[in-house]
Amino acid sequence: MKIALVVHDLHEHAGHSLYTRILADELSQRHQVTVFANQCERPENAGWDFHPVRAWRANALSAVQTFPLGIRSLSRALAKFDIVHAQGYCGGRPNVVTAHICVAAYLKSLRSPRSRNRASLTLMAAAEGRFYRRYQGRVIAISEKIARELRDYYQVTAPIDIIPHGVDATRIAGAKHLEFRAAVRAELSLGEMQVAALYVGDLTKAHALLKTLSKAAPEIQLLVVSRSSGYRWTADNVRFLPPTTELSRFYAAADAFVFPTTYDAFGMVVLEAMANGLPVFSSDQAGAATLIKSGQNGFVAGLDEWVEVTANGLKDLKRLRMLGKAARQSALLHDWTTVIKRVEAVYAETVSPN
Length: 354
What we know:
Layout: E1 2-6, E2 9-10, H1 15-27, E3 32-37, E4 39-40, E5 49-52, H2 60-72, H3 75-78, E6 83-87, E7 96-99, H4 103-109, H5 115-134, E8 138-141, H6 144-154, E9 160-162, H7 177-187, E10 196-200, H8 207-216, E11 221-225, E12 238-241, H9 247-253, E13 256-259, H10 268-275, E14 280-283, E15 298-301, H11 306-313, H12 317-331, H13 336-351
Parallel strand pairs: 1-3, 1-6, 2-4, 3-5, 6-7, 7-8, 8-9, 10-11, 10-13, 11-12, 13-14, 14-15
Helix pairs in contact: 1-13, 7-9, 8-11, 10-12
C-alpha cells in the first residue's frame, strides 16, 4: 500500500508525534510510506519519505489553523495514496484518522485557564468539532475515554476502533535496572528503604494534587520530571528534575509512579512506568487508567479521593514491589508490534471494505 501519514510535526519525544514516528518506521518495512508534516526529524537511514507542509508558526493556534491550508494545497499529491492517515484534525480528506485528544473535553477539564488559552482552545475545539461531524472515514481512538468523548462532544456516530498506544521494550532499563537504581538514588541521597514516587509530565494538569500529596505523605520522596517552569513549590520531600531522554534511570530509582492528571487522552508515561515495573497511582481522568486493575497492578481513583488512596498505598514498600511485578506483565502485553498490526488491519478494511 501507499500510505501518507499526516501530522503537524514529527519527532520522537512524546504523544501523537512519537506515535506517527513509530508507525512510519514500522510500516515502511512493508509499505511505501510518506510523512506529510510542517517540521520533521527524519533519520538518515529512515525507510520513509518526507513531504513538507506549509504552516504559519507564530504560535500553537496559528500552526493548527494554517496547517489545513497547506494540506489543501497538496490534495493532488495526497490523492495518489491508498491511505491518508491523519493524526487528529489536520485538514484535507483523510480516510483514516487517529484521535489523540478531544479538545472540547480537555477545555472543559481545565479549572481556571487563562483567558488567552481558553480563547485558543475554544477555536481549536470548534474546528475539530466541524471536522469530525463531517468526516466519513475510519476513526481510531487511542483510548475508550477518547471514543466516548468523540461521541459525546462531536456526535461521531461511525464505528470507532479503540487501539491503545504500545510500549517500546528497548526503552526499558532491563539488565541495567539495578545499576541505574543504585546510581540515581545515590545522586539524590535516597536510602534503599525510603519510598520514592515519580511523576513525569506537564505540571499544569497535576500540580495541585501533587502538592497536596507531598503534604499528606511527608515521609515519601516525590521526584518530579517536567518541562513546566511554573506551578513549582518548595518542600523537603520534593525534587524537581529537568526533562531527560533517559527516563529509564528515574523509573529504576522509583518505587511507584503517580499520575493525578485532570485530563489525559492516554498517558504514554503510565504504560512506560508499568513496563518498568512500577505500580501506577492514576486518576480516573487518564485514558491509560483502563489498563490498571486497582489493587492488582496499581490503583485508580477519582480526583477527590486520589491523594488519600495514594498516600495510603505508598506506605507499604513490600506491596509496591509485588504490584510492580504485576504491572510489568500487564504492560508488556501492549507492545507496538501489536498496535501496528491492528492499524494495518484498519487500513486493509479501508482499502477493501468488502
